[in-house]
Amino acid sequence: MKSDFLLAITQLAAEKGLSKEVVLGAVESALASAYRKNNFAPNQVVSVKISPTTGKVEVWAEKMVVKQVTDPRAELSLAEAKKLKKDAKVDDIVNVESTPQNAGRIAAQTAKQVILQRLHEAEHSAIFDEFSGKAGDIVSGVVRRVEPKQVFIDLGRTEAVMPSTEQSPAEHYRVGQRLRVYLVEVAQSARGPLLIVSRSHPNLLRRLLELEVPEIFSGTVEIKAVAREAGFRSKVAVAARQEGVDAVGCCVGLRGIRIQNIVSELGGEKIDVVNWNPDPAIFIANALSPAQVLAVKVDEKRESAIAVIPDRILSLAIGKEGQNVRLAVKLTGWRIDIKSASDSEKEKAEVEATRAAKAAAEKAEFAEEPEAVAVKPVPVMAGAAAGTPTKAARGLRFAEDILIPAIVTPESASKDKKKKKKTGKEAAEDGIRLKKARRGTDIYETDDEA
What we know:
The chain has 14 helices and 15 strands. The protein is an alpha/beta fold.
């Protein structure tokens, strides 16, 4: 029986994928719980030891040394204690072998249930320890069953769940299909470890590139950024750490064999591999591949850019439903606006015309406005002769330099002409010029007399 018992333990360990020591520990814990319930005191410490070679089961219980025994299950006399331990004293705790002769049907059933429970706990703990180290990596499994909101994938020792949010929209899963999935999270639940996997995560593409391209795995080529719309299109920015290495060529492979293997794994998803550059303008131009970019205007404060594209390939730069530019935005982290070359030229022409008109208006306004000259009154010195000019007066040589010219209107000009004509006629008819009036006389001097 003992050999059969050890054989059963060994077979159980192989089926559960556990070590023999773990299974023995679970069985010892289960037997101790079953024996304590039926053969020992409620709070007594009981331990079980199973020999790994012979399979012999020994049950040890802690008993207190007392002068007079009242409960033989938990107490031990001083004389019996000294047989086991020579220096034993009253109130000491002594381990005594107390293996029951017949465990009974109830004890055996209890032991069975506890053993199964302990084995499940040990199995869950081992699975959690195994897959927690694989979080963020690719695992391979087989589709076990498909439900409307989730797909269950058999990973061998356990089962993983792929929610609808982690499924690729372009893929249709069937039972028995083998898949490579990205392990997103490993958590503990009431039913054991919970594994969540994904087929739409951007890091799935990153890990596939690391597996397929040796230069990326060794660190010669670095993946700087990944933008993905699962099932349709993806963009990957790569940079070489070693001079003279073509990063894009390493990822594509000879005749595109490397990238084609990844495309096949992802169900025909298109993948664009572009060169990363520290200059945002160059990186944005590369990210809009396969469209040709004429110029990129960058606003670093707002992290936005305007890309100028030729009119004939404007739709290629935008992509189907804006997919190409949307992926470029995810890849670079910048806000990108697409503008055609013709619109850019029109805006430039409008800006130049506005600038020229503004400059012409400023020039005309400057020419029409007269220079304002400050006119200061000239003070007359008290007691000076009427005909003697002052120092201030002598300093002014021309009145035109200081006087503001009067505004001449058509009405005032016509009035001046009439006055001039009238004055000249009267002088021609009379022939007399008023020269000077003398005080107390009514005599006028004529020109002949003068």
